[in-house]
Amino acid sequence: MFYAGRDEGHCCMVTATDAKSITGVVFYGGSVWVRPDFRGRQLSTLLPRLGRAYALARWPVDWGISLVAPVLVEKKVATGYGYKHVSYSISYPNSPWGDIDFALVSLSAAEAYEDFADMLTTKPSFSEAVGSAGISSTILRDDKVTRISSEGVFHGSNNRS
User: Fold this and answer.
1) Alpha helices in 41-159, H assignment, sequence order
2) Which of 86, 102, 126, 161 has the most C-beta neighbours closer than 10 Å?
3) What is the DSSP letter of 133?
4) Which residues is 14 bridged to in the sheet?
5) Which domain covers residue 58, as residue numbers?
């Protein structure tokens, strides 16, 4: 996963006890980097849930997981991602980036649905959060129509027989 197929000879040590119970169809929610001027706008709360919502709507997902730096667990940042369980650890010693250690965070599909419902009923709406951060809540929309297919390519069918 971290070596783009060049991981032969690299060790991965999994001591996270929750890893044994995570089976079936598993959705991995990866990382995201947010530009500094967009931080503090609840994107780290919204994006993981959007990814899980898409995955649960698309596939018969049993579990959602991610790997989180322990410092983010300690600072309670990982709690905002919506995962319900934290288990230590997954380690990649001697990786090209040095020794890496992650916490395994997870939630079942049922817990994900509960999390969606909780967020929709108890959290302020995204537009309110954006507005309260001092950012314009006006949505800019690019409504220009552009051609995305080459000439002569038509999508769909007008033949109804």
Assistant:
1) 43-58, 70-74, 109-122, 126-132
2) 102
3) T
4) 90
5) 13-132
Q: Which of 88, 77, 101, 89 is nearest to 2 (CA)?
A: 101
| Total-model pTM | 0.71
Q: CA triplet 6, 20, 33: central angle to 5 degrees?
A: 50
Question: What DSSP line would sit under 65-90, residue for residue?
Answer: EEEE-HHHHHTTTGGGGT--EEEEEE
Residue 148 lies in a domain: no
Provide the token pair at 23: 């089976």
Nearest CA-CA partner of 10 in 19, 21, 20, 1: 1
pLDDT band at 121 (very low <50, low <70, confident <90, very high): confident
Structural domains counted in the chain? 1
Where residue 33 sits, what CATH number does that domain have?
A: 3.40.630
> Which has more pLDDT, 151 or 97?
97
**48 in helix, strand or coil?**
helix
| Calculated CA dihedral for residues 126, 129, 130, 135, nearest 10 degrees | 170
Written as six digits, the tokens of 43 are 């994107």
